[in-house]
């Protein structure tokens, strides 16, 4: 009887241990599965964020407007942002007309590079070409950044990315015309783009660049402190 009781007791202990091990394994695998799902969710969120991200590349505002021989003249302050996010020195342009056009050369990389956050091709790039009013022709418009020079907005960028992108600007029209060259460089689209709006005093016009897309321009009222400083100047 004692022997049977001992066997029963040992069997019970083994059953409890086996049940505990099974529960531990079940919880362990469930935790691993949950961690994997969380990691996949986080990775997907990062991909979506990279594909939908926008960065500010320039601000514009009207310094003053006046009429000359029946044509509205618009003096614009144009500020680009360097790679480190800091504003570059403002530039002034006097334009004929109220509708201000800003032309740019835009290079959009293959979306797989954007999804992965590639160091060189993880975001579209733009080179501002010209700015002009609706009473001017693009041929007579002031040049903003010349493709044959290293633009100031590369400040804060690595030498590798600066060289890579500068080479692309130098060969921009080859990117447009040569599909094989585009594929070699990981470029999806190379094209000219323009944004334009009627410019008014006391408003800030912000140009952004989508990570997998092109240029956008929005406007909002200038904050009071900047408005006062602008009027004083």
Question: Can you offer a commentary on this structure?
Answer:
By secondary structure, the chain is α+β, with helices and mostly antiparallel strands. Helices cover 39% and strands 33% of the residues. It has helices at 2-52, 111-116, 159-170, 172-177, 179-185, 224-232; strands at 54-68, 71-80, 91-96, 99-109, 125-133, 187-198, 203-210, 215-221. The relative contact order is 0.16.
Largest sheet: 5 strands, antiparallel
* SSE topology string: HEEEEHEHHHEEEH
* Tally of individual helices: 6
Helix- and strand-based class?
alpha+beta
Kindly provide the radius of gyration, computed on alpha-carbon positions and rounded to a whole number of angstroms: 29 Å
User: Averaging pLDDT over every residue, what do you get?
Assistant: 82
List strands and helices in order, with pairings.
Elements (H helix, E strand, L loop, with lengths): L1 H51 L1 E15 L2 E10 L10 E6 L2 E11 L1 H6 L8 E9 L25 H12 L1 H6 L1 H7 L1 E12 L4 E8 L4 E7 L2 H9 L1
Antiparallel strand pairs: 1-2, 1-7, 2-3, 4-5, 4-6, 7-8
Compact description:
The protein has helices at 2-52, 111-116, 159-170, 172-177, 179-185, 224-232; strands at residues 54-68, 71-80, 91-96, 99-109, 125-133, 187-198, 203-210, 215-221. The chain is α+β, with helices and mostly antiparallel strands and 233 residues long.
């Amino acid at each position: 009887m004692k022997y049977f009781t001992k066997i029963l007791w040992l069997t019970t202990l083994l059953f409890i241990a086996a049940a505990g091990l099974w529960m531990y394994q079940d919880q362990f695998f469930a935790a691993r599965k949950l961690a994997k799902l969380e990691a996949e969710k986080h990775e997907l969120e990062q991909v979506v964020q990279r594909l939908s991200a926008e960065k500010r590349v320039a601000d514009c505002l009207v310094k003053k407007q006046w009429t000359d021989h029946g044509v509205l003249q618009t003096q614009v302050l144009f500020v680009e942002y360097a790679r480190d996010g800091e504003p570059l020195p403002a530039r002034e342009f006097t334009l004929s007309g109220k509708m201000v056009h800003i032309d740019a050369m835009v290079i959009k990389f293959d979306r797989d590079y954007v999804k992965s956050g590639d160091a060189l091709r993880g975001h579209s790039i733009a080179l501002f070409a010209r700015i002009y009013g609706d009473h001017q022709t693009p041929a007579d418009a002031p040049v903003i950044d010349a493709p044959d020079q290293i633009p100031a907005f590369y400040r804060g960028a690595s030498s590798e990315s600066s060289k890579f992108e500068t080479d692309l600007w130098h060969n921009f029209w080859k990117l447009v015309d040569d599909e094989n060259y585009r594929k070699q460089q990981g470029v999806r689209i190379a094209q000219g783009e323009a944004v334009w709006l009627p410019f008014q005093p006391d408003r800030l016009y912000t140009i952004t660049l989508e990570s997998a897309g092109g240029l956008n321009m929005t406007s909002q009222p200038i904050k009071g402190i900047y408005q006062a400083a602008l009027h004083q100047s």
